[in-house]
Write the structure tokens for this entry.
Amino acid sequence: MIGNESAVHSHATALAEKISNRTARVGIIGLGYVGLPLAVEFAKAGFNVTGIDLSEGKVSQLNAGRSYIQDVPTTEVEALVEAGRLRATRDFSVIAELDTINICVPTPLRKTKDPDMSYIVSACEEAAKYFHPGMLVILESTTYPGTTEEVMLPILSSPGMEAGRDFFLCFSPERVDPGNAQYNTRNIPKVVGGITPACTEMGVCFYAQALQTVVPVGSTQVAEMVKLLENTFRMINIGLVNELAIMCDRMGINVWEVIDAAKTKPFGFMPFYPGPGLGGHCIPIDPFYLSWKTRQAGIEARFIELAGYINGQMPEFTVEKIQNALNDHGKALNGSRVHVLGVAYKADLDDVRESPALDIIHLLNRRHATVTYSDPHVPVVHVDGLALCAQPTLPAVADADCVVIVTNHAAFDYDAVVANAKLIIDTRNALRWAKSPKIIRL
Ligand SMILES: NC(=O)c1ccc[n+]([C@@H]2O[C@H](COP(=O)([O-])OP(=O)(O)OC[C@H]3O[C@@H](n4cnc5c(N)ncnc54)[C@H](O)[C@@H]3O)[C@@H](O)[C@H]2O)c1
């Protein structure tokens, strides 16, 4: 073999061999909800894994063998750290010693709803300083189609360093669902697309060592779009069902009963549920990455904008329901005590990012209600610049003029809540079994 072909052969063969015999040194940049579980899976598969994060707290907790992510047991982290297979650092120069890097940094939206690429760019620029031939780099952060090729490739390429020959670059969407007891990083099929076929092949080879199923696709753009399709599908269907909930409310129809009956159809229907608004780092944000990108191509993403508008109205709709219910009981919202049950964005999690509970508390504050909350997973929240501490549930429920169930954590004693509350707004159908005139459902 001569020229390019021999270079492809030498770097690809050497790296594939190291990956297959698990001597490749794996690096994960960003050790949050996505990065830590991934680091643990590769360490469990027998690799030496180094996590790189800017957070001093996360780095020192990991090195002390402690997990700070609910789905990752501390016992696993402790055993892997003790065995010398997992460590963390803030020092990017370790990249010089690594063979692979997965980038799992945040991709938030700016206030203008434009993508904030600064985390990806900065992680990539740091990586580029210590980049060397024969490396595999995979972006896992959710982003708009084109990011890997348009943003990352120019940062990592240099004269004599060509993707698919001297290094391998892929995108692989992360699909982890925090709190899901059935599906985790290991058993959720992993989609991966590379800049070239050799890159895709290397990505597949890498993930196949630690994860159950790998799904190769033809390009990084396809892999990027897969994630946005999945999350846009959820966001739009939730928007549809939230609109249906508003319609049902006006018509005096129980939307929950409608959905339960509709889902008995064995084909062509999938249930989605209404709620107090979207939360979390993905569903409220990711579709706007797509609409931002399509706007540049002159296409307006109308479904996304409409669903975003409807979902964005749900905290206001919830507060209106609280206000109307209090009025029906001869009270005004102004001056009433409202107790919020659950502030995490999802049941049984401790994550409050984009949680609709924060919007609801803000709207209640603006209407001069006295707001308290309880949440077994979240000891403190910050709203309107003030720290609010979780209260013991039952005394606060008994004391409140109105209780609003925003997050249906399993840990709440709902029988006791129903017994002690004067009035309940249930935005999650958590009290589906209870019949009482003091319960008002979304
Ligand atoms: N959380 C989820 O359920 C989920 C699911 C699928 C996809 N995603 C996507 O995965 C990506 C990461 O999300 P997450 O929830 O893990 O975020 P996170 O905030 O929990 O973790 C990100 C980590 O990256 C670190 N970081 C930020 N900038 C860095 C840099 N330049 N160098 C090194 N470390 C840096 C932060 O300190 C943090 O620890 C996002 O794009 C998100 O949309 C998240």
Observations:
- The longest strand covers residues 25-29.
